Amino acid sequence: LDIDELLSFDNVVLAIHDLSLMTERSAQALLQHARAVIFPSAFLRDHYRAHVAFSNSGAHVIEPGVDITPIERARGLRRRIAFAGNVRTHKGGHLLPEIINAIPGQEWHIFGGGDEVLLRALRRMPDVFVHGYYRAGSLPSLLHKHAIGLALLPSIVPESYSLTLSECWLAGVPAVAFNHGAQAERIACSGGGWLAPLNEGSAGIVNVVRRWLGGELTTKVPETVASSREAALAHLALYRSLDLLD
Question: Per the confidence metrics, is the pTM higher than 0.90?
């Protein structure tokens, strides 16, 4: 269905997960027409509010959930560092060689697929282990298996939520991210990591990592994150409140 077709329906509930709708010509009309608009984070909701006029009462934040087999959380001294996610430029993958070269002798692990050129360059670097793609929900066990103590999530575009951050937290692993988007919002609210200024690029990430390695930075990682069941129940409750379900 296109936007014009959606505008012909009486009961429209939108679930928005990224910024793509903002580029649509009829975005404002659709947001105003919808009975409810669901966002994964307050960041994304507020970003839309700042650029597209729509009813505040119709905006709802429901965090997406993740489910994994329970694992033992990271304990003790763990100094291995990982990048987790998609090794692409918009995820900060191009910054990894600079970050790694700035901290020689450190062991690094790369979890996830991505750009072949970036991955090939990382494979040639000493002390770097590229593990490739992993199944959804398996990241916490991989972080535990390889004794990871810190995760890098250096997206240079703002994330709308970051399930990868949730999976790191489920493994008891704190994260370093740039100070923008939902990652920054979640870390600032719940702890579980540190933020670097985006305008500092790789140098900002390196500064945080060095301080962490030196024992200057500590944080308490959240012990729970939203589960898939909790997210589903929140959606059902919203639909019932709109009299769309019995």
Answer: yes
